[in-house]
Amino acid sequence: MHATFPDLDGASVFITGGGSGIGAALTDAFMSQGAKVAFVQRSDATDFCDEMEQKHGVRPLFVSCDITDIPALKGAIDKAAEAHGAVTVLVNNAANDKRHATEEVDEEFWDWSQAINLKAYFFACQHVIAGMKAAGGGSIVNFTSISYMMGNAGYAAYTTANSGINGMTRSLAREFGPDKIRVNAVAPGWVLTQRQKDLWVTPEALGAHIDRQCLKEELSPEDIAEPVLFLASKTSRAMTGQALVVDGGVVVTG
Question: What angle do CA 253, 205, 252 make, to 5 degrees?
């Protein structure tokens, strides 16, 4: 870690997909700051929780949950609040960028893609609002992607959801700013998680992408975690409704 954010010490943090990939780096990073972390994902995270407990001396709260099951997602947030106090930092990280041809998309796939990549984000945000209001404020960080900014082909349902996340982030920031609830988005570039390596990384594809980056280095999950800490912390107290791009310099915003 390159920075310490004292206000995150003891904070109640809830992360979706917090046991693998970028999510695992987020859980580790928040725990390094002394935060009380709860997370959900579908697959078993016992081994990861064991690792975190050995490293930090405390265990994150893991709740097995399919985030497309909205009552279960709300229930997991309630369990986090019961264990750690009202959630004051929500990180909507879980997503699925399954590749698909537009001509082959049916309603079932479309609905599934929006459910995991957009719908769950909205209802997680909705469910933490009351607790954040009672706590005097909070920070929501929604993961989007540079995919829609680049106009990437091959997963139109996913990029549609990405764009929707940005619209939702801006509207919620406006609506709940008077309650001192900040809502921002983070847009990673191509982060080399194990899933990406297993499914899509080839020397040719990676080389072509790094050629488009200003910074000629591969991106790791840890490269995303620290900017999320910044957005969660009161260090960024004057930032809301923004999309923070962390991609090594592929797209240009502003």
Answer: 5
Single out the catalytic residue among 121, 148, 155, 158: 158
The residues spanned by each domain of the chain are: 7-246
Q: How confident is the model over 59-115, as pLDDT tens digits?
A: 999 999 999 999 999 999 999 999 999 999 999 999 998 999 999 999 999 999 999
Considering Cα of 43, then 183, then 124, then 118, what sign does the dihedral take?
negative
- Angle (nearest 5°) at CA 27 between 24 and 28: 85
The predicted structure's pLDDT at residue 254 = 56
Q: Which of 91, 128, 141, 95 is nearest to 114 (CA)?
A: 95
Per-residue pLDDT tens digits for 167-201: 999 999 999 999 999 999 999 998 988 888 888 78
Q: Amino acid letter at 102?
A: T
**Does residue 89 contact residue 8 with C-beta atoms inside 8 Å?**
yes
Q: How far is CA 216 from CA 2, 163, 210, 212, in A?
A: 20, 27, 6, 9
Buried-exposed string 47-85: b where 16+ CB fall within 10 A, e elsewhere = ebbeebeeebeeebbbbebebbebeebbebbebbbeebe
Fold that domain 7-246 belongs to in CATH: Rossmann fold (3.40.50)
Side chain identity at 121, as an amino acid letter?
Y
Backbone angles phi, psi at 184, to 5 degrees: -130, 165
SS3 194: helix
Percent helix / strand / coil, the chain, rounded to 5: 50, 15, 35
Active site residue 148: no
Between CA 9 and CA 49 the distance in angstroms is: 19
Tokens 């488009």 sit on residue? 212
